[in-house]
Amino acid sequence: MKPILLLSRGHADADFLYASHLAVEQALYLRFAPGDDLLAVSTLELDRARRESRAGRIIDRKDVGWVEQEDTLAAWSDLAGRLLGERGVSDVRVSPLLPAAAYEALRGAGVGVEIDRRLFLDERRHKSAEEADCIRAAQGAAEAACVEVIGQLAAAEPKPDGLLWLDGSPLTSERLMASAQAALSQIGYSGAELIVAGSPESALPHFQGAGPIRANAPVVIDIFPQGRTSHYHGDLTRTVVVGQPADVVRRMHDACVEALDKAIELLTDDVNGRDVHRAVCQVLVDRGFGTATDGFTGDPGAPRMIHSTGHGVGLEIHEAPALRDLDWMLQEGDVVTVEPGLYLAGLGGLRVEDAGMVMANGFRNFTSLPRSIDPADYL
């Protein structure tokens, strides 16, 4: 099989991080065979690379013929061609996410490039015990941040204007997100992107949240932190209402929790992710709601689920496998989310999400928080 060549696309390049165990802005990684790999970095990153990377050979790019160029990709590509030539190699496999400019630069340096569309897919989806521990720890961090947000919501006071007030001012999504981010930072996690969305805007599943939080309406709290040292993610969503939820909102929440339990009941090795997703859709339809999945539309005027049931979690927040209307056989070692949600424009939305590992005989849930719609149940 052809050697693997990776050019880092930045600190968030999951394939490069998986292969080299180094999050770095610019670097070159070559794997000629298992146990025979090389990492070339700048002088700036050399000592850190030697400390963090597990590559068999770690070198300063200056020591192997680096030539500064205005086009940095061309410089890395020329270096790659030189290192490959020393080993008598001219053809390599690369990630499908390799930038087009890098692809052209490698070809220009005389390197034959084959795009491997499944590069690391099977390896990355099968989590080792060490990786599972990292994700479980990240899930615990998400829970801590979620409880911080819910604690402030529980302490807030509904005012006649319909808004929640805390410490003399309206409680806002921005304030709650900042509190969640601070809680994560204090325990070694980052959460630059998270969701604390009040209603009715929460009818948009990926609306981050903005402005004052309303009483008696759903607040969606979706936290997906990344470990600063492990680089692995967790993913957790809870929805709460401060005050009295409308009957339809309570029924929506009950249906989502029931659907989540149904999915977890089915999750095991060699189960089709499509079957899990469709079982979740069936629960929601049976409870009087709808989905965007063909055959499970339900009442077109009712709140409905407009996304997949779940996805893989690891070095990226969304990775293989998927729990959606697609044939994808689950395997022991997959770490996935289960996140049924229901949404209706003008009313708002809600979602309840756990994450855990598919095992040979079931599902190992990494999540321990209650699933209640009542903030008091979390404190």
Distance between the termini: 55 Å
**Mean pLDDT reading:** 97
Instruction: Quote the CATH topology of the largest domain.
Output: Creatine Amidinohydrolase
**Largest sheet properties:** 4 strands, mixed
Q: How many domain units?
A: 2
Give the CATH superfamily of the largest domain. Creatinase/methionine aminopeptidase superfamily
Please count the helical segments.
Answer: 9
Poorly predicted residue ranges: none
What general outline do the C-alpha atoms trace?
elongated
Helical residue percent band: 25-40%
Beta-strand portion reads: 15-25%
Describe this structure in words.
- This protein has 379 residues and is of the alpha+beta class.
- The chain folds into two domains: 4-119, Creatine Amidinohydrolase, Chain A, domain 1 (3-Layer(aba) Sandwich), CATH 3.40.350.10; 125-378, Creatinase/methionine aminopeptidase superfamily (Creatine Amidinohydrolase), CATH 3.90.230.10.
- The protein has nine helices and 23 strands.
- The protein has a four-stranded mixed sheet with strand order 1-2-3-4. Strands 7-8-9 form a three-stranded antiparallel sheet, with helices on one face. The chain has a three-stranded antiparallel sheet with strand order 11-12-14, with helices on one face.
- The mean pLDDT is 97.
